[in-house]
Amino acid sequence: MLQQFHALDLDADVSLPSLHRSGYSALALDAIERRYLLAGTHSGHLGIYDVQSLALPLPLLAQIRARGEYGHQALINDVQWFPLDTGLFVSSDMRGLVKVWDTNRAVVVEQFAGFRHVFGHGICVTPSGSCLVAIAGGDKHVHLCDIRSGARTHSLAGHTRAVLALQWSPANEHLLVTGSRDNTIRLWDVRKARAMLTQLDMGNDDQASLHARTSAPAHSGHVNGLTFSSDGQTLVSTCCVARQIHTWDMRTLRRHLTVFSGIKPSQAHTRRMRILESAGRPYLLYPNASDLVLYDLWDGGAPVRTMRGHYHPISCLVADEAAPYVITGSGDPELLTWRPYRPEGPAEARDEFQLPHHLPIALDDEDNWSEDEEPAPAPRAGGNGR
Protein backbone atom coordinates (compact mmCIF):
# COMPACT_ATOMS: atom_id res chain seq x y z
CA MET A 1 0.00 0.00 0.00
CA LEU A 2 2.80 2.42 0.85
CA GLN A 3 4.28 1.99 -2.62
CA GLN A 4 1.04 3.52 -3.86
CA PHE A 5 1.52 6.49 -1.55
CA HIS A 6 5.03 6.88 -2.94
CA ALA A 7 3.30 7.61 -6.25
CA LEU A 8 0.82 10.17 -4.90
CA ASP A 9 0.07 12.98 -7.30
CA LEU A 10 -2.44 15.79 -7.56
CA ASP A 11 -5.61 14.59 -9.24
CA ALA A 12 -6.52 17.59 -11.38
CA ASP A 13 -9.58 15.76 -12.74
CA VAL A 14 -11.34 15.78 -9.37
CA SER A 15 -12.88 19.19 -8.73
CA LEU A 16 -13.60 20.08 -5.13
CA PRO A 17 -15.54 23.36 -5.17
CA SER A 18 -15.24 25.58 -2.16
CA LEU A 19 -17.34 25.36 0.97
CA HIS A 20 -16.25 28.97 1.52
CA ARG A 21 -13.64 31.22 -0.03
CA SER A 22 -11.80 31.68 3.28
CA GLY A 23 -10.20 28.24 2.94
CA TYR A 24 -10.13 25.14 5.11
CA SER A 25 -8.74 24.85 8.63
CA ALA A 26 -9.90 21.39 9.83
CA LEU A 27 -10.81 18.02 8.30
CA ALA A 28 -11.90 14.65 9.70
CA LEU A 29 -12.87 11.39 7.98
CA ASP A 30 -15.17 9.06 9.88
CA ALA A 31 -13.40 5.93 11.13
CA ILE A 32 -16.32 3.55 10.58
CA GLU A 33 -17.23 3.75 6.90
CA ARG A 34 -14.40 6.05 5.75
CA ARG A 35 -17.13 7.82 3.82
CA TYR A 36 -18.11 11.07 5.49
CA LEU A 37 -15.70 14.00 5.42
CA LEU A 38 -16.21 16.71 8.02
CA ALA A 39 -14.72 20.11 7.12
CA GLY A 40 -14.31 23.42 8.96
CA THR A 41 -13.22 26.72 7.46
CA HIS A 42 -11.25 29.77 8.53
CA SER A 43 -14.50 31.75 8.59
CA GLY A 44 -16.41 29.31 10.81
CA HIS A 45 -18.42 27.35 8.22
CA LEU A 46 -18.92 23.59 8.60
CA GLY A 47 -19.68 21.07 5.88
CA ILE A 48 -20.17 17.31 5.59
CA TYR A 49 -19.25 15.63 2.31
CA ASP A 50 -19.96 12.16 1.01
CA VAL A 51 -16.61 11.19 -0.50
CA GLN A 52 -17.52 7.70 -1.70
CA SER A 53 -20.93 7.74 -3.34
CA LEU A 54 -21.21 8.16 -7.10
CA ALA A 55 -25.00 8.16 -6.85
CA LEU A 56 -25.37 11.53 -5.19
CA PRO A 57 -25.25 14.51 -7.56
CA LEU A 58 -24.57 16.82 -4.59
CA PRO A 59 -22.29 15.06 -2.11
CA LEU A 60 -22.29 18.14 0.14
CA LEU A 61 -24.73 16.52 2.56
CA ALA A 62 -24.93 19.35 5.08
CA GLN A 63 -23.73 22.90 5.40
CA ILE A 64 -23.75 24.86 8.66
CA ARG A 65 -23.10 28.52 8.09
CA ALA A 66 -21.01 30.69 10.36
CA ARG A 67 -22.87 33.13 12.57
CA GLY A 68 -26.12 31.26 12.19
CA GLU A 69 -28.23 30.06 15.09
CA TYR A 70 -25.74 27.34 15.98
CA GLY A 71 -22.72 28.24 13.87
CA HIS A 72 -19.22 29.23 14.87
CA GLN A 73 -18.10 32.84 14.66
CA ALA A 74 -14.38 32.25 14.34
CA LEU A 75 -11.79 30.00 12.73
CA ILE A 76 -12.57 26.34 13.36
CA ASN A 77 -9.37 24.81 14.65
CA ASP A 78 -10.47 21.19 15.02
CA VAL A 79 -13.28 18.82 14.05
CA GLN A 80 -13.75 15.19 15.06
CA TRP A 81 -16.39 12.52 14.60
CA PHE A 82 -17.72 10.61 17.60
CA PRO A 83 -15.60 7.42 17.59
CA LEU A 84 -18.47 4.90 17.69
CA ASP A 85 -20.81 6.30 15.02
CA THR A 86 -21.41 9.34 12.85
CA GLY A 87 -24.47 10.54 14.77
CA LEU A 88 -22.38 13.07 16.69
CA PHE A 89 -19.38 15.24 15.94
CA VAL A 90 -17.43 17.88 17.84
CA SER A 91 -16.00 21.16 16.56
CA SER A 92 -13.94 23.85 18.29
CA ASP A 93 -12.88 27.37 17.42
CA MET A 94 -10.43 30.13 18.23
CA ARG A 95 -13.00 32.07 20.27
CA GLY A 96 -12.98 29.34 22.88
CA LEU A 97 -16.13 27.38 22.02
CA VAL A 98 -16.43 23.60 21.78
CA LYS A 99 -19.70 22.41 20.22
CA VAL A 100 -21.18 18.91 20.22
CA TRP A 101 -23.48 18.39 17.22
CA ASP A 102 -26.34 16.07 16.34
CA THR A 103 -25.35 15.20 12.78
CA ASN A 104 -28.81 14.37 11.45
CA ARG A 105 -30.48 17.52 12.78
CA ALA A 106 -27.42 19.81 12.38
CA VAL A 107 -28.02 21.31 15.82
CA VAL A 108 -25.79 21.80 18.85
CA VAL A 109 -26.75 19.43 21.68
CA GLU A 110 -23.97 20.44 24.09
CA GLN A 111 -21.51 23.31 24.30
CA PHE A 112 -18.44 23.99 26.41
CA ALA A 113 -17.38 27.63 26.67
CA GLY A 114 -15.11 29.93 28.65
CA PHE A 115 -11.80 28.99 27.07
CA ARG A 116 -9.38 31.61 25.80
CA HIS A 117 -8.75 29.82 22.50
CA VAL A 118 -9.21 26.19 21.56
CA PHE A 119 -6.16 24.90 19.72
CA GLY A 120 -7.50 21.36 19.57
CA HIS A 121 -9.60 18.69 21.21
CA GLY A 122 -9.72 14.90 21.36
CA ILE A 123 -12.54 12.45 22.10
CA CYS A 124 -12.17 9.21 24.04
CA VAL A 125 -14.82 6.62 24.94
CA THR A 126 -13.85 4.56 27.99
CA PRO A 127 -14.91 0.95 28.71
CA SER A 128 -17.14 2.27 31.51
CA GLY A 129 -19.15 4.25 28.97
CA SER A 130 -17.80 7.71 29.74
CA CYS A 131 -17.19 9.93 26.74
CA LEU A 132 -14.47 12.44 27.52
CA VAL A 133 -13.34 15.32 25.37
CA ALA A 134 -9.90 16.72 26.22
CA ILE A 135 -9.52 20.39 25.33
CA ALA A 136 -6.42 22.51 24.74
CA GLY A 137 -8.11 25.75 25.74
CA GLY A 138 -5.37 28.34 25.28
CA ASP A 139 -3.96 28.10 28.80
CA LYS A 140 -1.52 25.83 30.65
CA HIS A 141 -4.20 23.33 31.71
CA VAL A 142 -5.82 20.46 29.86
CA HIS A 143 -9.58 20.53 30.39
CA LEU A 144 -11.61 17.31 30.50
CA CYS A 145 -15.36 17.40 29.85
CA ASP A 146 -17.97 14.64 29.78
CA ILE A 147 -20.06 14.80 26.61
CA ARG A 148 -22.87 12.67 28.04
CA SER A 149 -23.40 14.75 31.19
CA GLY A 150 -22.24 18.11 29.84
CA ALA A 151 -20.02 18.57 32.89
CA ARG A 152 -16.40 19.60 33.17
CA THR A 153 -14.89 16.74 35.10
CA HIS A 154 -11.44 18.10 35.97
CA SER A 155 -8.31 19.81 34.67
CA LEU A 156 -4.79 18.46 34.26
CA ALA A 157 -2.17 20.79 35.74
CA GLY A 158 1.54 20.55 35.01
CA HIS A 159 2.41 22.56 31.92
CA THR A 160 3.78 26.04 32.56
CA ARG A 161 2.61 27.57 29.26
CA ALA A 162 -0.30 27.10 26.86
CA VAL A 163 -1.09 23.59 25.62
CA LEU A 164 -1.04 23.48 21.80
CA ALA A 165 -1.52 19.80 20.93
CA LEU A 166 -3.01 16.66 22.45
CA GLN A 167 -3.67 13.06 21.45
CA TRP A 168 -5.34 10.10 23.12
CA SER A 169 -3.36 6.87 22.86
CA PRO A 170 -5.00 4.29 20.58
CA ALA A 171 -3.43 1.57 22.76
CA ASN A 172 -4.65 2.83 26.14
CA GLU A 173 -7.92 4.75 26.46
CA HIS A 174 -6.77 6.36 29.72
CA LEU A 175 -3.47 7.71 28.36
CA LEU A 176 -3.42 11.29 27.09
CA VAL A 177 -0.34 12.97 25.59
CA THR A 178 0.00 16.75 25.43
CA GLY A 179 2.46 19.24 23.93
CA SER A 180 2.95 22.83 25.02
CA ARG A 181 4.63 26.17 24.47
CA ASP A 182 6.84 25.19 27.42
CA ASN A 183 8.71 22.80 25.02
CA THR A 184 7.52 19.70 26.89
CA ILE A 185 5.47 16.61 26.09
CA ARG A 186 3.61 15.19 29.09
CA LEU A 187 1.89 11.84 29.56
CA TRP A 188 -1.22 11.63 31.72
CA ASP A 189 -3.35 8.85 33.21
CA VAL A 190 -6.67 10.66 33.43
CA ARG A 191 -8.04 8.23 36.05
CA LYS A 192 -5.57 9.33 38.71
CA ALA A 193 -5.64 12.29 41.08
CA ARG A 194 -1.95 12.83 40.33
CA ALA A 195 -2.49 12.34 36.65
CA MET A 196 0.90 13.25 35.21
CA LEU A 197 3.02 10.16 34.63
CA THR A 198 6.16 11.52 33.01
CA GLN A 199 7.67 13.86 30.44
CA LEU A 200 9.44 12.84 27.25
CA ASP A 201 13.09 13.86 27.25
CA MET A 202 14.77 14.71 23.94
CA GLY A 203 18.11 13.85 25.52
CA ASN A 204 17.04 10.38 26.64
CA ASP A 205 18.62 7.58 24.62
CA ASP A 206 18.50 4.95 27.39
CA GLN A 207 15.71 2.73 28.67
CA ALA A 208 13.32 5.06 30.47
CA SER A 209 11.24 4.11 33.48
CA LEU A 210 7.75 5.50 33.83
CA HIS A 211 8.20 8.11 36.54
CA ALA A 212 7.57 11.84 36.61
CA ARG A 213 10.34 14.07 35.29
CA THR A 214 10.10 17.70 36.31
CA SER A 215 12.36 19.35 33.72
CA ALA A 216 12.67 17.46 30.47
CA PRO A 217 12.29 19.38 27.21
CA ALA A 218 11.05 17.32 24.29
CA HIS A 219 11.95 19.96 21.69
CA SER A 220 14.00 23.13 21.36
CA GLY A 221 10.79 25.16 21.03
CA HIS A 222 7.00 24.98 21.18
CA VAL A 223 5.52 21.50 20.71
CA ASN A 224 2.68 22.10 18.26
CA GLY A 225 2.01 18.70 16.71
CA LEU A 226 1.41 15.15 17.95
CA THR A 227 0.27 11.99 16.18
CA PHE A 228 0.27 8.28 17.05
CA SER A 229 0.74 5.24 14.89
CA SER A 230 -2.38 3.07 14.74
CA ASP A 231 -0.99 0.63 17.33
CA GLY A 232 0.02 3.40 19.73
CA GLN A 233 3.65 2.25 19.84
CA THR A 234 5.09 5.22 17.94
CA LEU A 235 4.52 8.92 18.62
CA VAL A 236 5.63 11.73 16.32
CA SER A 237 5.98 15.27 17.66
CA THR A 238 6.83 18.50 15.88
CA CYS A 239 8.28 21.89 16.68
CA CYS A 240 7.74 24.08 13.64
CA VAL A 241 9.70 27.06 14.94
CA ALA A 242 12.85 24.96 15.45
CA ARG A 243 12.04 22.85 12.35
CA GLN A 244 12.16 19.59 14.34
CA ILE A 245 10.36 16.28 13.94
CA HIS A 246 10.96 13.76 16.73
CA THR A 247 9.94 10.10 16.75
CA TRP A 248 9.36 8.34 20.09
CA ASP A 249 9.12 4.68 21.05
CA MET A 250 6.23 4.65 23.51
CA ARG A 251 7.28 1.29 24.98
CA THR A 252 10.63 2.65 26.18
CA LEU A 253 9.91 6.41 25.99
CA ARG A 254 13.14 6.86 24.05
CA ARG A 255 13.57 9.24 21.16
CA HIS A 256 14.81 7.68 17.95
CA LEU A 257 17.97 9.46 16.82
CA THR A 258 16.55 10.22 13.39
CA VAL A 259 17.23 13.54 11.68
CA PHE A 260 14.79 14.95 9.14
CA SER A 261 15.86 17.54 6.60
CA GLY A 262 14.03 20.01 4.41
CA ILE A 263 11.57 21.12 7.10
CA LYS A 264 10.30 24.62 6.42
CA PRO A 265 9.68 27.08 9.28
CA SER A 266 6.06 27.72 10.22
CA GLN A 267 4.15 29.94 12.63
CA ALA A 268 1.17 27.57 12.78
CA HIS A 269 -0.31 27.10 16.25
CA THR A 270 -0.93 23.42 15.55
CA ARG A 271 0.43 20.94 13.03
CA ARG A 272 -1.75 18.19 11.54
CA MET A 273 0.03 15.12 10.15
CA ARG A 274 -0.52 11.39 9.71
CA ILE A 275 1.54 8.22 10.16
CA LEU A 276 1.12 5.67 7.36
CA GLU A 277 2.31 2.09 7.77
CA SER A 278 3.48 -0.60 5.35
CA ALA A 279 4.88 -4.01 6.35
CA GLY A 280 5.65 -2.70 9.82
CA ARG A 281 7.54 0.33 8.51
CA PRO A 282 6.20 3.80 9.43
CA TYR A 283 6.09 6.83 7.17
CA LEU A 284 4.95 10.36 7.96
CA LEU A 285 2.61 12.39 5.76
CA TYR A 286 3.56 15.94 6.71
CA PRO A 287 2.33 19.40 5.61
CA ASN A 288 5.55 21.30 4.88
CA ALA A 289 4.29 24.85 4.30
CA SER A 290 2.34 24.60 1.01
CA ASP A 291 3.97 21.26 0.09
CA LEU A 292 2.76 17.81 1.10
CA VAL A 293 5.73 15.56 1.87
CA LEU A 294 6.30 11.93 2.85
CA TYR A 295 9.12 11.04 5.28
CA ASP A 296 10.54 7.63 6.16
CA LEU A 297 10.35 7.66 9.97
CA TRP A 298 13.16 5.13 10.34
CA ASP A 299 15.64 6.52 7.87
CA GLY A 300 14.85 10.23 8.19
CA GLY A 301 16.73 12.50 5.84
CA ALA A 302 14.99 14.25 2.98
CA PRO A 303 11.38 13.51 2.04
CA VAL A 304 10.90 10.45 -0.14
CA ARG A 305 8.10 12.29 -1.91
CA THR A 306 7.23 15.99 -2.30
CA MET A 307 3.89 17.08 -3.76
CA ARG A 308 2.91 20.60 -4.76
CA GLY A 309 -0.49 22.07 -5.53
CA HIS A 310 -1.52 24.52 -2.81
CA TYR A 311 -0.72 28.23 -2.83
CA HIS A 312 -1.14 28.68 0.93
CA PRO A 313 0.28 26.54 3.77
CA ILE A 314 -1.57 23.26 4.28
CA SER A 315 -3.55 23.38 7.51
CA CYS A 316 -5.37 20.03 7.53
CA LEU A 317 -5.41 16.62 5.86
CA VAL A 318 -7.07 13.21 5.89
CA ALA A 319 -5.85 9.95 4.38
CA ASP A 320 -7.62 6.72 3.51
CA GLU A 321 -5.03 3.97 3.15
CA ALA A 322 -7.54 1.45 1.80
CA ALA A 323 -8.77 3.56 -1.13
CA PRO A 324 -6.08 5.03 -1.28
CA TYR A 325 -6.27 8.82 -1.38
CA VAL A 326 -5.35 11.94 0.56
CA ILE A 327 -7.38 15.15 0.83
CA THR A 328 -5.72 18.38 1.96
CA GLY A 329 -7.01 21.82 2.90
CA SER A 330 -5.31 25.19 3.20
CA GLY A 331 -6.04 28.91 2.93
CA ASP A 332 -6.91 28.20 -0.69
CA PRO A 333 -10.68 28.08 -1.35
CA GLU A 334 -10.58 24.49 -2.64
CA LEU A 335 -9.71 21.12 -1.18
CA LEU A 336 -7.21 19.10 -3.18
CA THR A 337 -7.30 15.35 -3.75
CA TRP A 338 -4.14 13.26 -4.16
CA ARG A 339 -4.02 9.66 -5.30
CA PRO A 340 -1.46 7.31 -6.79
CA TYR A 341 -0.56 8.07 -10.36
CA ARG A 342 -0.90 5.22 -12.83
CA PRO A 343 -0.26 5.38 -16.56
CA GLU A 344 -3.46 5.30 -18.58
CA GLY A 345 -4.43 1.84 -19.74
CA PRO A 346 -7.56 0.31 -21.25
CA ALA A 347 -10.84 1.98 -20.37
CA GLU A 348 -11.84 -0.94 -18.13
CA ALA A 349 -8.67 -0.60 -16.08
CA ARG A 350 -9.15 3.14 -15.68
CA ASP A 351 -12.73 2.62 -14.53
CA GLU A 352 -11.62 0.10 -11.90
CA PHE A 353 -9.04 2.51 -10.56
CA GLN A 354 -11.43 5.44 -10.14
CA LEU A 355 -11.96 6.28 -6.48
CA PRO A 356 -15.61 5.87 -5.57
CA HIS A 357 -16.26 9.56 -5.04
CA HIS A 358 -17.39 12.70 -6.75
CA LEU A 359 -16.60 15.46 -4.30
CA PRO A 360 -18.76 18.39 -3.54
CA ILE A 361 -20.44 21.04 -5.64
CA ALA A 362 -20.72 24.17 -3.51
CA LEU A 363 -24.23 25.28 -2.58
CA ASP A 364 -25.15 28.78 -3.71
CA ASP A 365 -25.30 31.29 -0.89
CA GLU A 366 -24.22 34.81 -0.19
CA ASP A 367 -20.83 33.67 1.07
CA ASN A 368 -19.65 31.92 -2.10
CA TRP A 369 -17.81 33.50 -5.02
CA SER A 370 -19.85 35.98 -7.05
CA GLU A 371 -19.48 36.69 -10.74
CA ASP A 372 -17.97 40.07 -9.90
CA GLU A 373 -15.17 38.55 -7.86
CA GLU A 374 -11.92 37.49 -9.38
CA PRO A 375 -11.77 33.68 -9.44
CA ALA A 376 -9.13 31.94 -7.39
CA PRO A 377 -6.05 30.75 -9.29
CA ALA A 378 -6.10 27.12 -10.33
CA PRO A 379 -4.02 24.76 -8.19
CA ARG A 380 -0.50 24.22 -9.36
CA ALA A 381 -0.40 21.00 -11.29
CA GLY A 382 1.56 17.93 -10.49
CA GLY A 383 3.64 16.38 -7.78
CA ASN A 384 7.37 16.68 -7.59
CA GLY A 385 8.48 13.24 -6.56
CA ARG A 386 11.90 12.10 -5.55
Automatic annotation (TrEMBL):
Biological process according to GO: proteasome-mediated ubiquitin-dependent protein catabolic process; protein polyubiquitination; transcription-coupled nucleotide-excision repair
Feature: compositional bias, Basic and acidic residues: 342-355
UniProt keyword annotations, A-Z: Repeat, WD repeat
Biased composition (Acidic residues): 363-375
Name the UniProt record assigns to this protein: Uncharacterized protein
InterPro entries, sorted: Rad28/ERCC8/Ckn1/ATCSA-1, WD40/YVTN_repeat-like_dom_sf, WD40_repeat_CS, WD40_repeat_dom_sf, WD40_rpt
GO cellular component, one term: nucleotide-excision repair complex
Swiss-Prot/TrEMBL WD repeat ranges: 69-111, 156-198, 307-338
Segments of this protein annotated with the region Disordered: 342-386
